[in-house]
Amino acid sequence: MFAKATRNVLRDIDAGGDLISVSSLNDSDKAQLLSVVSKKRRFWCWQKPKYHFASLTCMLSDVLTDIKAVKPVVVESEFVTYVGTSGDVIRGNIGADFGNVHMNAAGMGYVESQSSFGALRKQEVDLQHLMKDVRERFLPPVLIKSFLHGRNSEKDRNS
């Protein structure tokens, strides 16, 4: 239910598809700005890719070469206030005739529910400043080798 609600909110507020929905509240703590996310392609072309957050919180500065941490310029602002209201009116009427006696009963009810995620905030990174900070930094060869080994073993499993 939580995953469906977050997908619906993202569909409403992000038409471009740049945001990744979180499937559970446990994963929401792992989703932080500039955290490392792996993208797993699905077998069939019509299936959407699946995103996995690192098991431990792994930030971009943790995997790049150089001791200096990446400190991007972050601007935080209110993104959207998401409030949904739904309602329904129920009416009923029943009547009966018993000889000279006429009976009639009617009823009406109104149900309204309101759901709110509150005010959602967004964090934006100045990409020009970030790209300037990471220009001379690379992934360590060990990570590249393990990444390529993982892709090759995945291809072997699929074929």
Automatic annotation (TrEMBL):
It comes from the Eukaryota. GO terms for cellular component: cytoplasm; endomembrane system. It holds the Pfam family Gasdermin. Residues 1-136 form the Gasdermin pore forming domain. GO terms for biological process: programmed cell death. The keyword Transmembrane helix does not apply. Keywords: Membrane. It is found in: Endomembrane system. Its main location: membrane. PANTHER family: GASDERMIN-E, NONSYNDROMIC HEARING IMPAIRMENT PROTEIN. Belongs to the gasdermin family. This is Gasdermin E. The gene is GSDME.
